[in-house]
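notes to self, project folder thing:

trying the whole complex as one job this time. last attempt i did each chain seperately and stitching them together was a nightmare. two parts in total, labels are on each line so i dont mix them up again. if this works i'll redo the older ones the same way
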Amino acid sequence: MWNLLPSVSQLLFVLFGAMALGCAVAMVAQRNPLYSAISLVGVFVSLACLYLTLQAPFIAAIQVIVYAGAIMVLVVFVIMLLNVEEEVRRPVRLRSLIPVGVLLAAVLVGEAAFMLQIGDSAALAPTAPAASDVGLTASIGTGMFTKYLLPFEVTSVLILMALVGAITLARQGRTPLFAAPGNVTEEPAVLTEGGELALKPGDTAATGRAYAREQIRGGDAAAPSAPAREEDER
Amino acid sequence: MIPLTWYLALSAVLFTIGVVGVIVKRNAIQMFMCIELMLNAVNLTFVAFSSYFGDVTGQLFVFIVMTVAAAEAAVGLGIIIAIFRNRESLDVDDASILRL
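result (full assembly):
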């Protein structure tokens, strides 16, 4: 299945690599965040295709589902929610530092080329990926739930923390805390559609006290027996 | 077959584009997306090495990087929404004072 001609695999690499590079440059060059997001989806999809050529179908599928699906939908959702305007063009500051930046960039490119050159001659000599089951879901699952079980579990804790943090950050103002006794000074009256106080399973103590007061006010219960009645209703 | 260095070079260029984006961009959401691009460049390196050396560990780390990216998306977008609510702007220059 993967016995493609060398020229074909190189053609695929050049095609998807160029797509990824073009979309990445477009993402940085765009001023409108929404266009940037669409370009980033292009990068993700091209990288998924590259993963397929690297015989990693599981990672390719996860790439499309999680990145292009979940994360980018979240980003686009926030862009739409906040109604972000286009970036304003600002004058370049520190213009005198531009030659320094060009020089440093040249040094970086030289270093990278040197390292890749070394890698080419050393142990990283190109060996064709042998036909194996490395990229398949079964082998990934086996590795994840045996040797790397602890990192996997720690990751789930991380997700939980991120969930709590995101909710805390995005919360609008002061959220009503769980109405424990002593936590609430102003007890809200919970009314049904008919305008009557009602108790539901899972109501808090504050609701129960408000209910009892309403009962006493309406003459349905005498003051001393109000707590007992509250218990009965629950 | 494609030399491994091709993948590494592509990954390096993608990462550099991401770094340039983070430096150049003023919009918080676009900076955020450039960070995602950098994470993806690293993922490409992981998968290339994993495939060329026949070791599944690299792809497991890609999985974990994706999880971290998802957590980062949740927290980062929460921060962006909080900043926007206070300043009515996503320009990071407007939020250079770390005070709401």
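what i see at first glance: The two ends of chain B are 55 Å apart (CA to CA).
need to look closer tmrw
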